Amino acid sequence: MGEPVLDGPTVPTTLEPNGDKNSVVEQTLECNGKVWKVSAISMGNPHAIIFVDDLEKDLDFEKDGPALEAHPVFPAKTNVEFVQVLSDTHLKMKVWERGAGPTLACGTGTCALAVAAIRAGKIPHPPKGEAVRVTLPGGDLFIEWREENNKIYMTGPANLSFKGTAELK
Asked: Which of 4, 10, 95, 160 has its CA 20 to 30 A from that of 115?
């Protein structure tokens, strides 16, 4: 999947960088009447990663997702990943995709949230050759962030979600 972009202004976000490499790690953001801790990472597209204790109880997905996506601190808008830590090697995610809304999965978002979890100290960096399991509505993906080349590798199943036809005029 490539290398994560950690530089806040490049993501892009106007949130104040507070981490090494000019990065944004759990920076405070007020939105939709709530205070969030946001990490910003790009995998070629912007991601706002927010850790919560419970994905079902700690957010109003249909309201908080679009409010964060279009918040002014994200000048190009952003994908929003809400993440619950289940264990040191297992994360659970719901994604609000920029311009699309809720989706079953997001490969770049899964990569970004694994990096964010490690950088924020939510989980340890797995040993070489091991991956973080991320559970999404559409199934599990496995993410490995290799220190020797700073690249992220994703594995998981590919399943047909739907098929159809459209008449173009």
From this structure: 160
Q: Which residue has the tokens 């989980």?
A: 123
pLDDT digits (tens, 9 = 90+) for 54-96: 999 999 999 999 999 999 999 999 999 999 999 999 999 999 9
Q: How far is CA 133 from the centre of its chain?
A: 14
> What does pTM read for this prediction?
0.92
Q: Give the containing element (helix H, strand E) for 96.
A: strand 90-97
- DSSP for residue 59: -
Q: Nearest to residue 117, comparing CAs of 148, 93, 98?
A: 93
Are the beta carbons of 108 and 116 closer than 8 angstroms? no
Alpha carbon distance, N-terminus to C-terminus of the chain: 36
For 26-54, letters b (16+ CB in 10 Å) and e give bbebebeeeebebbbbbbebbbbbbbbee
At 98, the amino acid letter reads: R
Distances (CA, A) of 14 to 32, 78, 83: 18, 12, 22
